[in-house]
Design a protein that fits this description.
There is one protein chain. The protein has a 5-stranded antiparallel beta sheet with strand order 6-5-7-9-8, with helices on both faces. A hairpin with a 5-residue loop joins strand 5 and strand 6. Helix 1 crosses helix 2. The protein is globular. The protein folds into 2 domains: about 1-140, no CATH class; about 180-235. The protein has 5 helices and 9 strands. Helix content is about 20%, strand content about 25%. It has helices at about 1-15, 85-105, 105-110, 125-130, 195-205; strands at about 40, 65-75, 115-120, 135-140, 165-170, 175, 185-190, 215-225, 230-235. The chain is an alpha+beta fold.
């Protein structure tokens, strides 16, 4: 689950390069073509992997799968000709921080949600004209697609709506609870110790039975910086 690892890691280490709220003049060619913060789009899972977004925004009251939470600018000396890995690192870190500002930054509650981020840059024509912006979009990840977002975006809490809350499918794939699922997140906690299979299983057996609502239960875990990891306990559902 790279999106969870990236999100929690970004939150805990407090990354920050250039603030994604960098002010630019309206007629600045570096900002030309950037979508408005708060605008919504009907992005598919396939389009989410594209370098730029070739579609018009939709009304946020209509079905949509992505909402712009910030626009950022490539910090000098980076240009669009730099290695893709460097560009993706900058955009990913700034976009996760923008999502945290929008919905909250509690790492445990983040793991109980399916929130993620995607980001787009200018198209080739806009780049040639000097555009340096990138847009950060909040999304919720389902097992094989992007889910529809509620409007407005709910902040992180223990009572997230199904459209945002984290569940598992019968095949243990992460999805929203609005999608078909077999397990629902009931409890998330920090665990300390080495992340060996034995230690993780012992920790799950110690904590999860008292925190779930069904005799059968499941668990997941992710590494985070430092001598700790995050574990989630899931109750079985019939949906």
């Amino acid at each position: 689950m790279p999106r969870i690892l990236g999100g929690i890691a970004a939150l805990l280490v407090g990354v920050g390069l250039v603030g994604s709220g960098t002010a630019v003049a309206v007629d600045d060619p570096a900002a030309s073509g950037a979508p408005a913060v708060g605008s919504c789009f009907a992005v598919t899972a396939g389009e989410a992997a594209d370098a730029w977004l070739d579609q018009a925004p939709v009304d946020c009251a209509a079905p949509h799968t992505a909402q712009v939470v910030a626009t950022g600018m490539l910090p000098p000396p980076l240009t669009w000709d730099h290695p893709q890995e460097q560009l993706l690192d900058v955009m990913s870190e700034q976009c996760w921080l923008a999502l945290f500002r929008k919905v909250g930054r509690n790492p445990l509650l983040l793991l109980r949600s399916q929130y993620s981020v995607i980001f787009f840059g200018p198209d080739p024509g806009q780049q040639a004209a000097g555009a340096r912006w990138f847009s950060c979009h909040a999304v919720v990840a389902e097992d094989d697609r992007l889910g529809e977002l509620p409007n407005p975006l709910p902040r992180l809490s223990n009572r997230l709506p199904d459209s945002v809350a984290a569940c598992l499918t019968r095949k243990a794939a992460h999805t929203t609870c609005a999608d078909a699922h077999a397990w629902r997140s009931s409890y998330v906690f920090f665990a300390r110790g080495r992340t060996t299979q034995r230690n993780i299983r012992l920790m799950a057996d110690q904590i999860c039975p008292g925190r779930v609502t069904t005799p059968r239960w499941s668990f997941t875990w992710v590494d985070v910086p430092g001598p700790a990891y995050v574990m989630a306990c899931y109750s079985q559902t019939r949906r």
